[in-house]
Amino acid sequence: MRKTHLPAVPALLAVCAASAALAMPGRAAADDDRPLQARAWAAACASCHGFGGQPPAGSPIPPLAGRPAARIASLMADFKAGRRDGTVMPQIAKGYSEAQIAAIAAWFAAARPQGD
Ligand code: HEC
């Protein structure tokens, strides 16, 4: 059996940890006077809309980052009331109160779209 190059493993782990830190919403931590509660609620949207509200390039899911809070909130209200069709958003929107939607919308409005 060949000798494995064990010293490379900690170095690799360090690289992984560093890139994970970059990929995580560290940006949000940097510009954050936004309430932690809103951030926690907004995290529920991140699996589809991307961390910080910016979906990966080529994703069909619309971005939320940097869009006007009033626009995000009214889209959510429309999904919730059945005025706007969608595959998943009508159900998701129904799970949030008006106050929660306002807080989440404000959080995404304050998020900078990636690349800025
Ligand atoms: C399971 C994936 C998923 C999650 C989780 C999710 N969304 Fe969406 N969202 C979508 C998809 C897909 C659309 C397109 C409409 C549809 O098919 O429902 C969308 C559309 C939207 C739109 C309309 C944007 C536009 O320009 O038309 C808003 C606003 C929105 N989502 C907000 C949210 C918020 C806020 C959350 C978290 C509370 C959230 N979404 C969580 C998948 C998701």
Automatic annotation (TrEMBL):
<keyword id="KW-0408">Iron</keyword>
<dbReference type="InterPro" id="IPR036909">
    <property type="entry name" value="Cyt_c-like_dom_sf"/>
</dbReference>
<keyword id="KW-0479">Metal-binding</keyword>
<dbReference type="InterPro" id="IPR009056">
    <property type="entry name" value="Cyt_c-like_dom"/>
</dbReference>
<dbReference type="InterPro" id="IPR050597">
    <property type="entry name" value="Cytochrome_c_Oxidase_Subunit"/>
</dbReference>
<keyword id="KW-0732">Signal</keyword>
<feature type="signal peptide">
    <location>
        <begin position="1"/>
        <end position="23"/>
    </location>
</feature>
<keyword id="KW-0249">Electron transport</keyword>
<feature type="domain" description="Cytochrome c">
    <location>
        <begin position="21"/>
        <end position="112"/>
    </location>
</feature>
<keyword id="KW-0349">Heme</keyword>
<protein>
    <submittedName>
        <fullName>Cytochrome C</fullName>
    </submittedName>
</protein>
<keyword id="KW-0813">Transport</keyword>
<dbReference type="Pfam" id="PF13442">
    <property type="entry name" value="Cytochrome_CBB3"/>
</dbReference>
